[in-house]
Design a protein that fits this description.
This protein has 127 residues and is mainly alpha-helical. It has a single domain (2-121), classed as Rossmann fold, CATH 3.40.50.2300. The chain has helices spanning 2-11, 22-31, 48-58, 76-86, 98-121; strands spanning 37-40, 64-68, 90-93. β1, α3 (48-58) and β2 form a beta-alpha-beta unit. α2 (22-31) runs parallel beside α3 (48-58).
Length: 127
C-alpha cells in the first residue's frame, strides 16, 4: 500500500519521503522540511493516531491526511472520525482513487491556509 501511495503522489507531482511507521516519520520531521503528512492509521510501532498527537505538539499547523481501512477494534469510519477529532486535516477511506487522494491533499492545504489566515487576523494591530 505504501509503495502504491508513493507512486500516486509522485504522479501528481509531489516529492515523497516514505517511512514505515510513526517513529520513523517523526525522525524525518526533525531533519527534513515537510509541508504535508499522509499517514495510515494502522502502522507498526507508533500508529497514525500517535503520529498526529506528536506532530501537533511541535507543528500544530502541519497538514495531515489520514487514510484507513479500519483495524484494531475500530471500523474504518471510527478510525477516521478519531483521526479527524485529533486534528487530521483530511481523511480518506481505503480503497481510494488518485482523484480522492488529490482532493484530500487539496482539503488539507486549504484548511492549513485558512488556519494561517485566522491566526494572522487574530493578532493585534500595532498602532
Amino acid at each position: 500500500m505504501r509503495q502504491l501511495l508513493q507512486q500516486l503522489l509522485q504522479v501528481i507531482g509531489h516529492k515523497v519521503i516514505p517511512t514505515s511507521d510513526g517513529e520513523e516519520a517523526l525522525k524525518v520531521l526533525e531533519r527534513e522540511p515537510v509541508d504535508l503528512i499522509v499517514t495510515d492509521v494502522l502502522m507498526p510501532g507508533k500508529d497514525g493516531l500517535e503520529l498526529i498527537r506528536e506532530v501537533h505538539k511541535n507543528r500544530p499547523s502541519l497538514p495531515i491526511v489520514v487514510v484507513s481501512g479500519g483495524g484494531y477494534r475500530l471500523d474504518k469510519h471510527s478510525c477516521l472520525t478519531t483521526a479527524k477529532y485529533m486534528g487530521a486535516s483530511a481523511t480518506l477511506s481505503k480503497p481510494f482513487s488518485l482523484q480522492e487522494i488529490q482532493l484530500g491533499i487539496d482539503q488539507a492545504w486549504a484548511k492549513a491556509q485558512w488556519q494561517a489566515a485566522q491566526a494572522t487576523l487574530a493578532q493585534p494591530v500595532a498602532g
